[in-house]
């Protein structure tokens, strides 16, 4: 049976499409298979809110940061395929309960001057903190754009990034780090929240490292695609097709075909078999290796290791169609202002974040006072809402319920959405009367819609024991699998998830290298 394609990519998320783009550009005959009727995975823009036509919401990703550190946009000519980014500056607006506020700008010195109004000492400390981490990120960058180096060599690289402080920070919690560096909650709060974006407690080891890496935002800025996050995968899909690749939507893979320890294609739901020399899965590692690969093709011990990969449910997402923008007490105004174009962080202190984490963990529910990432994207991009109306995006942490006990998940979800709105209303009281319609998605909704494990867009928790050469498993962090010619890509592989396309970039180059060697 002859191969119809050189490579099949399962899943048209942005990593899968980036990988396919590079493979097609190298001359390989590539097919991308997507289970939904649109491309994009967790990076789509759709009319999600029932009874609110014309309001477009991003399904998960909103702010694009780390993708601007890599060459994907340039290499795949994405600007020529309709990708146009809007610079968001100030990047973040943080309101506080005492009526004060803080803006974080792309420029470090400008941000320091903003902080100086609240704390002259923290202004100086933040400036040095951010610049040191930017320099460290530049040193660490090569380790992200290749299969991960062994853990034992990571410390050496971190020492090169500084005087040993960065090696220490790998194991430091963000709570400890902000307490050691800053004196006020005005800085501790937002820095802690940046370190806990993936569902961690601020006291968890490694969150300090994540927060530090986020300082690279001062180097690349915060940007959003004009037309919504979905414009990135649309541009990537156009690039794939431009370089000769084929994309099929409404094509769900049932199983990966394996013979004698090597893949030879896939079978779709419905029975169609497609033969290929190589298969790359952009599905999460557990789905790929436990569901798409039949049990007899992997030994029991390896399967047990895959089963132990930790994936946590941690957030609730609320999309609203609104008549008016939030009128913040600390920065009044309903008309479009800089705070509306920025992402709005609700996290007034590190202690607040820690309390939110433990509250949810104890109650299997959304925190009474959740930390939130809020965005009113239509303020910067009017194409996302009808005239004189706006979109409101909130994702709230921590929503940890997995197996409801006393109430249904639907009841808990609705109650949690109310808590999220109530929390925002403490800072912007007008928001409750501004709602036209809203749509709430729990982890279960995101899992069903996007095949995200527990609704987690990271696919695999980015905890220290599942990062670098341990991601997703020790010995299998180089994008290869025990099955020959079957590769993994996506958020569950090195270096991490989010909108960055680095896993797709890295996997493609591993596949191309193996292909050229005939291995």
Number of strands: 18
Helix content: 25-40%
- Give the percentage of residues in beta strands: 15-25%
Outline the low-pLDDT stretches.
none
Quaternary form: single chain
Gyration radius from CA atoms, angstroms: 22 Å
Coarse morphology: globular
Relevant CATH superfamily of the domain at 5-44 and 228-309 and 454-517: FAD/NAD(P)-binding domain
Query: What value does the average pLDDT take?
Result: 94
What profile does the largest beta sheet have?
Answer: 7 strands, mixed
CATH class division of the domain at 5-44 and 228-309 and 454-517: Alpha Beta
Class inferred from helices and paired strands: alpha/beta
Features:
single chain, 519 residues, alpha/beta, FAD/NAD(P)-binding domain, 7-stranded mixed β-sheet, 19 helices, globular
Structure description:
The protein is α/β, with parallel strands linked by helices. Among the domains are: 5-44 and 228-309 and 454-517, FAD/NAD(P)-binding domain (3-Layer(bba) Sandwich); 109-218, no CATH class. The chain is 36% helix and 19% strand. It has 19 helices and 18 strands. The strands form four sheets. Strands 1, 2, 9, 10, 11, 12 and 18 form a seven-stranded mixed beta sheet that branches. Strands 7-6-14-15-16-13-17 form a seven-stranded mixed beta sheet. Strand 1, helix 1 and strand 2 (30-33) form a beta-alpha-beta unit. Helix 3 runs antiparallel to helix 4, helix 8 packs across helix 9 and helix 8 crosses helix 15. The relative contact order is 0.19. The mean pLDDT is 94.
